[in-house]
């Protein structure tokens, strides 16, 4: 790897891509290109820098779904703010609930089955476990944000959908 390329024409080998003499590398300003483009308003007045609106201190959060928060008339996400008016809200349930017989029930059924047949009733014990996420998506003002809310039980989707319907009513 440290030897020069034997197939290259010329006596001296240069590492890297070929560059024209005197040409600056990628990402460097071009000499003589002049000042960078500055957008202006009428009469040559420069446009002030545009920053996303900062929520005013007077508003309390109306709703919070994962990292999406509704404050006043805007939706605040880690990527920036979006207008609340006309927002489209969606949710997808990607959780599942499994039901199984716990290990304790199997051990108790074996122990008590030897003593009396009533020990087999321990096999009727069931344990429910919910895993997965609820995906919530909001689209507004040409922006899009998605968050994942962990499902802690089979009723998590109902709680999230209640909040989502409230957010939809605020968006009208």
The strand count comes to: 7
The geometry reads as flat
| Radius of gyration of CA atoms, rounded to a whole number | 31 Å
Helix-strand pattern, N to C? EEEEEHEEH
Keywords: Membrane, Transmembrane, Transmembrane helix
Question: How does this model look, in words?
Answer:
The protein is of the alpha+beta class and 172 residues long. The protein has a domain of 66 residues. It has 2 helices and 7 strands, in the order βββββαββα. A 4-stranded antiparallel β-sheet has the order 1-2-3-4. The protein has a 3-stranded antiparallel β-sheet with strand order 5-6-7, covered by helices on one side. A hairpin with a 2-residue loop joins strand 6 and strand 7. The longest helix is centred in the C-terminal third of the chain and has 16 residues. The protein is flat, with a radius of gyration of 31 Å. The model has no long low-confidence stretch (mean pLDDT 80). Keywords: Membrane, Transmembrane, Transmembrane helix.
């Amino acid at each position: 790897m440290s030897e020069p390329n034997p197939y290259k024409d010329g006596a001296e080998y240069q590492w890297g891509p070929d560059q024209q003499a005197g040409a600056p590398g990628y990402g460097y300003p071009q000499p003589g290109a002049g000042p960078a483009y500055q957008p202006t308003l009428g009469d040559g007045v420069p446009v002030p820098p545009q920053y996303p609106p900062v929520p005013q201190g007077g508003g309390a959060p109306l709703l919070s779904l994962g990292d999406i928060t509704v404050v006043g008339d805007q939706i605040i996400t880690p990527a920036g703010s979006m207008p609340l008016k006309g927002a489209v809200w969606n949710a997808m349930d990607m959780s599942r609930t499994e039901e199984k017989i716990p290990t304790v029930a199997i051990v108790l059924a074996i122990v008590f089955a030897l003593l009396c047949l009533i020990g087999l009733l321990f096999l009727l014990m069931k344990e429910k476990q919910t895993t997965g996420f609820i995906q919530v998506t909001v689209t507004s003002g040409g922006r899009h944000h998605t968050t994942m809310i962990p499902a802690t039980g089979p009723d998590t989707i109902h709680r999230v959908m209640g909040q989502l319907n409230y957010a939809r009513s605020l968006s009208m």
